[in-house]
Design a protein that fits this description.
- This protein is mostly helical.
- The chain has 12 helices and no strands.
- Helix 2 packs across helix 3, helix 5 crosses helix 6 and helix 8 packs across helix 9.
- The radius of gyration is 18 Å and the shape is globular.
- The two termini are 23 Å apart.
- The mean pLDDT is 96.
């Protein structure tokens, strides 16, 4: 069985660096992480463009918007009422507990920041780890449905493991390298969109020769 670094190198050779997460600031990363729940990135980009047009990509700006206006700005991302509430709850928490400073939030030990994020309404493990890795530059591996799909087909996961088990497994097997964590998650996502789909396209897949579930051409 190939190890996690072997698979990473295969994906990196095939796709190159993904330069993910696309954002101008850490705060924009957090907005994207919340908005991308239950939707695709194209819809998130439309919402972020709307926020940028009214200079609402800062903590203070989000808090100054009335809820209805914020809902309409992020409407393209779907579940806009729920997400508007979550955005303002995060911003209010940051303001009340960290003086509105992301540096103050992230300048803490990983598990302490993660626990804070997970206590906030609407921020689950995947969103928290995305915020920690991409916005906070903390060494926290992001697990998503694509991770289960790819590594289930490679028989490295069974698909029944809990999120925390999978995250700990990756973090125990990989070097302590933030850039590698960043690239690996992005590579898994693009690979599952291009080849390892729900109905896989196995021809020319960079992992085809090591995949027990490879489909005949």
């Amino acid at each position: 069985m190939s190890n996690l670094l072997d698979i990473y190198q295969r994906l990196l050779k095939h796709y190159g660096n993904r330069n993910w997460w696309p954002a101008d600031t850490p705060f924009e990363v957090i907005i994207g992480a919340i908005l991308t729940q239950n939707t695709n990135w194209n819809n998130v980009e439309k919402a972020i463009v709307n926020l940028r047009q009214v200079d609402a990509l800062t903590n203070n700006a989000i808090l100054k918007l009335d809820l209805e206006t914020l809902e309409q700005l992020i409407r393209p991302s779907g579940f806009f009422r729920q997400k508007a509430e979550r955005l303002q709850l995060f911003c209010r928490y940051l303001q009340n507990h960290h003086q509105g400073s992301l540096d103050h939030l992230f300048d803490q030990e990983l598990n302490r920041v993660r626990d804070e994020l997970l206590r906030l309404k609407g921020i689950g493990p995947e969103t928290a780890d995305s915020i920690l890795l991409y916005a906070g530059q903390h060494l926290s591996f992001v697990v998503d449905a694509y991770t289960y799909r790819l590594f289930g087909r490679l028989r490295i996961l069974s698909g029944k493991e809990k999120y925390g088990f999978v995250r700990d497994f990756f973090m125990s097997q990989l070097p302590d390298d933030i850039q590698l964590y960043n690239e690996y998650h992005a590579l898994i996502v693009i690979h599952c969109k291009d080849f390892c789909r729900k109905k896989p396209l196995c021809q020319n897949c960079p992992c085809a020769d090591i995949c027990p579930e490879k489909q005949p051409n």
